[in-house]
Design the sequence.
């Protein structure tokens, strides 16, 4: 995020072993873009040849001008110190915060924020990560807007807000097995719209990629790339190799 965030206190991570799911209420805890950019700049020789950097719209900010300025300042923090990733991902949703800016996932807001980011980045690809709990019309509007402004990929999806095991009044983001069906449904909608409208934007699957079978479900939709995290918890650090072998 543009500024440092302390994140949430108490228990902020849970496992649901029966469904191989994870749930997080970390609250975007991070030292802010300037500190991260400075750290990566010091370690440029040690970085992999391909890295992606995720930035998030600041929760609690509702003024469109301020949102746009903070997104551009976040990107500039990296670019101006020579940290140029293979792509930036802009998280339009942040379900592990109490003030998830869901309003950013309208067609007009996405067009404004992402259009400004694409214009600033020029040759660095912009990916955009969205929620699994929007309407079908919203997904159609979002992919059309992102295609129009030149975003390179849409990541479907972020985690699914659900009550935490400790407090039914607190929502936290669920990933892994319990997210899989929702994320797959969103990818199906986006791929259908992409094909019907002949869009060039890529769709990246994200949600419950835990084994060869769950990976194949995304591939069957025409999705060529996926992201995973819960698989590292349940399958270990070689999860990618294991899943590829199974597939």
Sequence:
């Amino acid at each position: 995020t543009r500024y440092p965030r302390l994140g949430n206190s108490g228990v902020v991570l849970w496992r649901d072993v029966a469904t191989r799911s994870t749930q997080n209420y970390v609250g975007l805890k991070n030292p802010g873009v300037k500190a991260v950019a400075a750290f990566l700049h010091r370690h440029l020789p040690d970085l992999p040849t391909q890295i992606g950097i995720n930035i998030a719209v600041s929760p609690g900010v509702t003024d469109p001008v301020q949102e746009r300025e903070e997104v551009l300042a976040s990107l500039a923090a990296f670019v101006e110190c020579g940290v140029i990733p293979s792509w930036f991902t802009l998280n339009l949703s942040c379900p592990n915060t109490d003030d998830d800016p869901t309003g950013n996932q309208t067609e007009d807001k996405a067009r404004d924020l992402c259009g400004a980011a694409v214009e600033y980045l020029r040759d660095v690809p912009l990916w955009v990560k969205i929620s699994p709990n929007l309407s079908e019309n919203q997904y159609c509007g979002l992919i059309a807007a992102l295609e129009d402004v030149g975003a390179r990929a849409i990541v479907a999806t972020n985690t699914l807000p659900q009550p935490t095991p400790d407090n039914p009044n607190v929502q936290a983001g669920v990933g892994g097995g319990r997210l899989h069906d929702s994320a797959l449904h969103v990818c199906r909608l986006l791929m259908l719209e992409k094909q019907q409208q002949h869009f060039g934007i890529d769709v990246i699957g994200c949600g419950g990629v835990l084994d060869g079978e769950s990976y194949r479900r995304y591939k069957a939709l025409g999705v060529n790339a996926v992201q995973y995290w819960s698989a590292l918890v349940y399958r270990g650090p070689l999860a990618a190799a294991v899943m590829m072998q199974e597939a």
Observations:
- Residues 177-197 form the longest helix (21 residues).
- The beta strands are 13-16, 21-24, 52-56, 87-91, 126-130, 153-156, 160-163, 171-176, 202-206, 225-227.
- The chain has a mean pLDDT of 94.
- The helical segments are 33-42, 64-79, 107-121, 136-149, 177-197, 212-220, 230-235, 239-246.
